[in-house]
Amino acid sequence: xSQSYYFESYPPLFRPPPNISQIQESNSDExxxxxxxxxxxxxxxxxxxxxxxxxxxxxxxxxxxxxxSEACRDWGLFRLVNHGIPVTxxxxxxxxxxxxxxxxxETKKTFFANSTSxxxxxxxxxxxxxxxxxxxxxxxLAPTKGAQENNNQSLQWMEGFNVSLAQLSNIxxxxxxxxxxxxxxxxxxxxxxxxxxxxxxxxxxxxxxxxSIDTGLLRVYRYPRCLEPERTxxxxxxxxxxxxxxxxxxxxxxxxxxxxxxxIDVNPLPNTLIVNIGDMLQAxxxxxxxxxxxxVKVNKHKERISIGYFVFPAEDTIIQSTKYNPFSYADFxxxxxxxxxxxxxxxxxxxxxxx
Length: 355
Fold this sequence. Notes:
eight-stranded mixed β-sheet, globular
């Protein structure tokens, strides 16, 4: 595939100018590690959830569960190993995502909107680019002109597929690539729902409707190569609005988290997942667990693929907290979307905090 043809898969604003020499793939790693991630907590899921008959082993399980709570208090995230998700499933999703992302931009824009003959049916998979902030229907939220002027980095160097897991079984695609992708995502969603449910129980106790598996969604991201990576971010500094987020990343790297006034590279390790706390869990835990700030760097020589799972409270569930005024996730989302459109940035939980 020629480079000029391949760059047709990029949104137009991400394509190199025609008078610039073509970007070449490179095996070099230009990530400048600000602080080694060797101190990021590593949690063995199997040890946390699989006691044996002996009393000693049950006590060991409680010790490992306490490590999860400690990691979420101190870091807001941890690396999960022995999670039980087949590595073949992760590899297949990544390979199919690369094939879909390499389609021409115009094809991706229309593919999912026109994927069903029922005109009033909303596709469970939508395509977006330039912003991770989406409306409930999966469309990217465009800041107002004033917000764009106040926030020079409103354009994020990424594109993605937004996947509503609850609706994914309602449609079957005639295109073999897309239907296979749908099936893989559905299977992966079930695996992640299992993990999120168990982790939420370990971090609790919380009201059962404070996290609703029916709200679960996947975001499959591609971060295109960028000629001037120092001038933009794949995704700029933010916290997730979720209860929990579970991230799988390829071998390129770029994810960073903020800890102790420093940015730390979260290096990719095979067959591991990154679990991080979102705003909703911070509120419902009375700030015991902290929603972690993170961002994604772009790379001049390599594209990056990552897959995020996000799960939320039931839509109208009122979250009660000693630190915040009572609010529902619907209230929070409406406030975030208002801020993004008017200010160009998310103010998060501060708007709901007791004065």
